[in-house]
Automatic annotation (TrEMBL):
GO molecular function, one term: 5'-3' DNA exonuclease activity
Family annotation (InterPro entries): PHP_dom, PHP_domain, Pol/His_phosphatase_N, Pol/histidinol_Pase-like
Pfam families documented for this protein: PHP (PF02811)
Name the record gives this protein: PHP domain-containing protein
Transmembrane segments: none
CDD domains hit by this protein: PHP_HisPPase_AMP (cd07438)
Sequence ranges assigned to domain Polymerase/histidinol phosphatase N-terminal in this UniProt record: 4-69
Source taxon at top rank: Bacteria
Amino acid sequence: MFGVDLHTHSLISDGTLSPEQLVQAAVDVKIHTLALTDHDTMDGLARAQMYAQDHDIQIISGVEISSQWSRENTKKSYGVHIIALNMQDDAPIRIMLEKQKKVRAERAQTICNLLEKCIDFDIYPDVIAKVDGHADRVTRTHIAKTLVEKNIVSRPQQAFDRFLKEGKKAFVKFDGVGLKETIEVIHASQGFAVLAHPTRYDLSATNIRYLIELFAGFGGDAVELPSHSEPLSTRQMVDRMIQQFGLGVSIGSDFHGDNMPWIKLGHTPKVNEGQRGIWESFR
Ligand code: AMP
Ligand code: MN
Ligand code: MN
Ligand code: MN
C-alpha cells in the first residue's frame, strides 16, 4: 500500500460502488490521493469531491478516455485507453466527452442489435436499466452482466469470449477521439495524459513500443505501470520503454468493485528508483 491510486471506477461507469462509497473505501485502506477515472465521463467527480470534504483524502479529477491510434500509412486503428488526470480547467475536456458519450450511447444500441441476431431477443432495455437510463454510461461490462442474468452465458468473461471482444459477432469498435487530439485536449484542460495498461491491448511487443513512442511524441506525460499480476518480464519491458522515451509513471489499481473482485483498491505496483511519479507534479 502506497496511498496513491490513480485509476478507479464507480457505478457511474462499470464499477459497483457509488462515488461516495468509493471514497469511503479509499479512506478505509488509507489512500490519501485518489483519482476517479470512469469511462468517458466525469459525472461522478462532484459527488466524490463533496464526500471527501469531510475526510482526509485528496480527490484528483480524472477520466479514462476511449481513444484510438494507427500506424503510419495503415488504415487499421487500434483502441487505447488514455487516463486524464488533475485537470485545472474542465471546459475543453468536457466538450470532448460530450462527443465520446454520444459514441458510447449509439454503440450500446448497435451492440445490442448485433446480439439480437445471435440470441433472438433484444437485451437493450435490460442493459439500459443497469445504468438508470443513462445510455451514455453503458460499457461492455454492463452488457456482459446482462447476458449472464439472461442465462445466455455463465460468466461475464464468457460473454466477451463468445460475443463482445474483437473479432466476435457483436464486437463494435469504439470510434472515439484520436490519440493526438486526446492528449491535446487534456493539456488544454491543464491535465496530465497517462497511457493506461499498455500491455493489455493484445498488441505485440513491437506495437506496444510503437504506441509508447507515438504517445511520447504527441506529448503524453506518463505510462501506467503494469499490475503485480503481470509477469516480471512484462514490467521490465515497460520500465525500459518508459526510460527510453523519458516518460513519467502512474499507478492505479483499475478497481471495479464487485465486477472484478480480484482487483483490490489501492493495490498498485511499486515504483522503481529513478521513475518520476506523475502525482508529484499535481498541484
Ligand atoms: P467498453 O469501454 O464498453 O469497451 O468496455 C470496456 C470495459 O469492459 C473494460 O474497462 C473492462 O472493464 C471490460 N473488459 C474489456 N475487455 C474485457 C475482457 N476481455 N474480459 C472482461 N472484461 C473486459
Ligand atoms: Mn472498465
Ligand atoms: Mn481500461
Ligand atoms: Mn479502467
